[in-house]
Amino acid sequence: MSQYRPPLSDIRFLLQHVFDIDAHSRATGASLDLDTALAIAEEAGRLASDRIDPINRAGDVHGARWKDGEVSTAPGFADAWRAFREGGWSALRFPEEYGGQGLPMAISAVVDEMWHAASISFALCPMLTNGAAEALLTAASDTLKATYLEKLVSGAWTGTMNLTEPQAGSDLAAVKTRALAQADGSYRIHGQKIFITYGEHDMAENIIHLVLARTPDAPAGVKGISLFVVPKFLVGTDGRLGARNDVRCASIEHKLGIHGSPTAVMLFGEHEGAIGYLVGEENRGLETMFIMMNEARFAVGLQGLAISERAYQHALAYARERVQGKALGEDGSQGTSILRHPDVRRMLLGMRSHIDAMRALAVYVAMQKDIAHAPDNDAGERDAAQRRMEFLVPIVKGWFTENAQHITSDALQVFGGMGFIEETGAAQYLRDARILTIYEGTTAIQANDLVGRKTLRDDGATAAALLDAIETDARRLEAVDGRAAASLRAALAQSCAALRAALLWMRETQATDARAVYAGAVPYLECWGLLCGGWMHARRLLAATTLADAGTLPDASAMSAGYFAEHALSRIPGLAASIMSGASFALHFPDSAW
Amino acid sequence: MSQYRPPLSDIRFLLQHVFDIDAHSRATGASLDLDTALAIAEEAGRLASDRIDPINRAGDVHGARWKDGEVSTAPGFADAWRAFREGGWSALRFPEEYGGQGLPMAISAVVDEMWHAASISFALCPMLTNGAAEALLTAASDTLKATYLEKLVSGAWTGTMNLTEPQAGSDLAAVKTRALAQADGSYRIHGQKIFITYGEHDMAENIIHLVLARTPDAPAGVKGISLFVVPKFLVGTDGRLGARNDVRCASIEHKLGIHGSPTAVMLFGEHEGAIGYLVGEENRGLETMFIMMNEARFAVGLQGLAISERAYQHALAYARERVQGKALGEDGSQGTSILRHPDVRRMLLGMRSHIDAMRALAVYVAMQKDIAHAPDNDAGERDAAQRRMEFLVPIVKGWFTENAQHITSDALQVFGGMGFIEETGAAQYLRDARILTIYEGTTAIQANDLVGRKTLRDDGATAAALLDAIETDARRLEAVDGRAAASLRAALAQSCAALRAALLWMRETQATDARAVYAGAVPYLECWGLLCGGWMHARRLLAATTLADAGTLPDASAMSAGYFAEHALSRIPGLAASIMSGASFALHFPDSAW
């Protein structure tokens, strides 16, 4: 089995040379310098590879198991969670007043990648717990914060997000779960929620459910949804655990992947009603959810990067070892390692060049969030960073997770027939990755968000500003010698022009044929993903070429960038043409002829 | 669960209007008319949907099980096999003298698609049995034919292909299994074979293994490999089963998919040596295998088409039923079926347009084989058909099976969260499909074959002739009105030009930098797949527009064709650029920097 190796040298390259974490910390008022950041990354890497990676396969093979409403996690999960908590990793980016460490997103992004790479199934637990803590931090009363936040930040308790119901998946307007106000200010919750990640498990002493529900007089649709805290065990005013709440795990799902992560059907209020506490105001639950959504979608994007990195590492290790055939044009009458075969190298550099692009973009987006939240920054700067971050989040979520499908599939392909055998491990990455383009909003939902809220709502201003920034960096490549820089510069210029043409078409067409614009939403998101990836390669290449004594770094950066330009950015003109064709054939295909 | 519906109306359209099976039968001396062909397809469709489709899920969930060297297949498999045999389906394309029906490939291709669509795991058994029968028919002595062929053709016995060994996967030159000649003319076989499909099972009274092995004095490499028949039970001169041969199933694999198909580790000659009989001459085993390979690769291509069709049908049925959200720009305050959402339509027509293209290409290639084998045709015509068929087989194998990855993944995506739940069935298609780009030669191996043997060996003559034929049909689209025909005509012309440029580059570069040419092999194969798909859409559209009273057929054909032109053929310029860039970055990436 693979031993996951944290990508520490790439993290150093990004934080030191590409993005300059010291300058970033100064600009955002964070107390984090490069050495501390790298020490944190190294320590996280150790936990990820020594404690979490070893349980990944048990999570898959054994899985979480349900019996009589209780869920036991796979062997090793509870111990790994204890080690994780004790290391303080759950608290990394939360305020110090709740026991957190108040570190910037720029560092938590690189650390979170490692948890997901080591085991997505495991890392979903802290990811959801962070999400619940974030919701409370954003909108809850001081009393609720005092009762729940510290325990969630420390990882003593874990959290869940209860949105989906059988009839309400992507469409939260259809939520039916009811919340009845009680005399004491609490509510009684009744309803069924499905697809609840870590809805029930044996790793923590309490589980704090955040639940979307409707009060009886609430308006129809999304404007009538409220958010409630519903603990598994009620919490006394002294902080001690009290009675079991009226909430039960009815079953867990039998899934294609992430077997180690229990996906629960939760029943609220089978008897007297589950006791819940309103977070924020009635009917404004979805607003709180939307604030969190950027966070959660970014986190799922990181999962896409993480599983890609893991699959790539494993495939590369196999390609080095496996001897088969004689590579064309090379010595090796006794056979050569398949790493020498042209197509294996094509696949591996394809994976690598996408991973390089994704990790840089993840750090860039995390830094935008830090800038947007830095209290001393001026409002204009914060707002610009916020808008760019919000524009990029659906790209991170959509593009990273679609990439993960191709990369885990290519990684399996490198193994040949062995890839199809479960014991090899490559199949698990493919299976685990398959949920990523679905949960936290499908790729189409990300793409619709990118088209509607993020592009057309401001008439393309944020998009145009980003294109300007990319073109500026592309021009800086003129100072760099070599084919890679030349290819990348030309491809970025051509890609920006293609995106500008598509943008113009979208703005002109939205009023007369909005369905045609949205039929091109996914290709539009793909174009942006590729373009931002190419942009990040420009930043990497510019940083690498200024370094003296960097060993193979400049060469490797150039080749990864050049490959991305000639084999990934080359897809953009075709995709842009697809957008502008309006998919009219798909929209008008006769219903009777399907 | 899905009820598989055989695509009878498309089969009728292809056999009647696009390709004219009556004219084809006359030209190839086959005694098959349209009505008979459609009656056969209908009858096969009934067996596929009524008897084989229902066991598909049991195959997945229960799987084949090994105990003490015996393998029991999943519930229903043995009964389905009995029904299949009794219907005479195993015998469809074999000569009448061995109990077959002597039908052309054009009909067996459409029928074989149905078996694979109903259950790939089940259909692998007749597929391998046909392969073994084909090998004997091609190269075995009359005695061997008399002993084994009729039983294989009738399906009383089944067959296997034993090529792979742990160190000899794609590289058969590394085969180590030994064969020692005996005084009586038989051989004793010793060695281990892996990945043997249906190597052991309980569905037939005997299993006939075809085994690649080396005699002691054989030359090294592929020129020293011989082919042997090794029956599980020895067969007496009276045709009765005798003693158990010295061959044993040591275990079966735990795989990502096709759980119903046992994949065996076979041990030959643990004791005195397994008794085997030479097929053809010593050291010429690989030649026989190569003749069969076109057959087997074509069959795996059909599996790609088949699982795509099944996944598409299931996703379409769900999209019709599932109500979620309100589709943009449409009525439906109570929600609309997701079939009305633009991106769902985009995904579904993307699948459909690829399936339409693949099925037409499958029939076309099958007809080339019929023409090549028709005894009354002149040698020039037969030779041209043979060369075109050999050119297209790696495209069918490589492109169809890569398409199957995307189509089964998109089908799962249509289901949203439900797609990730195993009970839905969509995940099984994705898992089953994943082997298709690997076995019978990976996509890279198909692509290398297409570049080397099929394109460069005759200096691009076969490729150029095919481009001429495609351009001729593209010009015929001038007579067809509408945007679809115009888009398709333009895209085909542009694609042919791009392929001609790539061909020229390949011919010029092969002498100086063969590795660069082969680094572009997979994109080259993808270009050809897309181009041939577009060509088939031209043939379909030309046929559909000449029909009066064809209901929605002309519209549906035009929209499928137009979509393919604007969203699939649009990928060709980028792919052609990738080919001609030579992937130099991948080839020269520093080994120490991976």
UniProtKB/TrEMBL annotation, chains A, B:
Q: Which residues form the Acyl-CoA dehydrogenase/oxidase N-terminal domain?
A: 39-155
State the EC number(s): 1.3.99.41
What cofactor does this one take?
Answer: FAD
**Residue intervals of the Acyl-CoA dehydrogenase/oxidase C-terminal domain:** 283-450
Respond yes or no to whether keyword Flavoprotein is given for this record. Answer: yes
Signal peptide residues are none
Known catalysed reaction(s)? 3-(methylsulfanyl)propanoyl-CoA + oxidized [electron-transfer flavoprotein] + H(+) = 3-(methylsulfanyl)acryloyl-CoA + reduced [electron-transfer flavoprotein]
Superkingdom of origin: Bacteria
Pfam families in the record, alphabetically? Acyl-CoA_dh_1, Acyl-CoA_dh_C, Acyl-CoA_dh_M, Acyl-CoA_dh_N
**Residue ranges of domain Acetyl-CoA dehydrogenase-like C-terminal in the record:** 479-587
Q: Does the keyword Metal-binding apply?
A: no
One GO molecular-function annotation for this sequence? flavin adenine dinucleotide binding
InterPro entries from the UniProt entry = Acyl-CoA_dh-like_C_dom, Acyl-CoA_Oxase/DH_mid-dom, Acyl-CoA_Oxase/DH_mid-dom_sf, AcylCo_DH-like_C, AcylCo_DH/oxidase_C, AcylCoA_DH/ox_N, AcylCoA_DH/ox_N_sf, AcylCoA_DH/oxidase_NM_dom_sf
Annotated Acyl-CoA oxidase/dehydrogenase middle domain residues: 161-268
Keywords, A to Z, come to: FAD, Flavoprotein, Oxidoreductase
Q: Which family does it belong to?
A: Belongs to the acyl-CoA dehydrogenase family.
Q: What does this protein do?
A: Involved in the assimilation of dimethylsulphoniopropionate (DMSP), an important compound in the fixation of carbon in marine phytoplankton, by mediating the conversion of 3-(methylthio)propanoyl-CoA (MMPA-CoA) to 3-(methylthio)acryloyl-CoA (MTA-CoA).
Kindly provide the name given to this protein in its UniProt entry: 3-methylmercaptopropionyl-CoA dehydrogenase
Look up and give the organism this protein is from.
Noviherbaspirillum pedocola
Organism taxonomic ancestry? Bacteria, Pseudomonadati, Pseudomonadota, Betaproteobacteria, Burkholderiales
